[in-house]
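S.,

Sequence below, as promised.
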Amino acid sequence: MLAIAGGKGGCGKTTTALGLARALGRAGRTALAVDADREMPNLHALAGVPDEPSVTDVSATADPAAIAHQDPATAGVRILPAAGRDDPDAAQSLRHLSRCERRVLLDCPAGAGPDAADPLRVADRAIVVSLPTEESLRDAAKTAAMARALDTAVVAGAVVRTDETPESVNRLLGTDAVVAVPDGGDDPLRSSATARAYRQLNVKAGLAGD
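The prediction came back faster than expected:
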């Protein structure tokens, strides 16, 4: 499982999670994109699928992909919407995702509270996403530190809406696998430039191998 995390809302986590999943699907692999953000759940809306069934319906015995929605844009990709805001078992449902035989990408909540920590805690690795602003990068560095404190390795970083990243960003996020994701305009998931960046990010994060 790979957590797609970031310090603030609006930094591009959801688009990155879906973009990475679709890049895997177009490469002939399978992926499950999961919305782990109960406060601001929008992965299902971005993908164009219903909001139920959701993470709430994941059981301890069944493959989570079996209840997830087929992504209307890409074969091999399934979408699992967020659990309800008041679901007391949401953290346990996230742990059940380890049963999935697909690559699992968790669209994480922003911030450093318990809701943000839960998906980072169950993930094997993390990608930290940021805008190319000083404030966003500073928050991303805090998220990277939180992931490491939870024993989740930060394997890559994504700086969105930019064509290049300075070497200092690698040091800030603590990884030499930082990818610049160009501004894809009004619909970045349809941009060939962003698609190339997502493919590169999958490789750097170790998702593209068999």
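The CA atoms of residues 109 and 116 lie 5 Å apart.

Coffee later?
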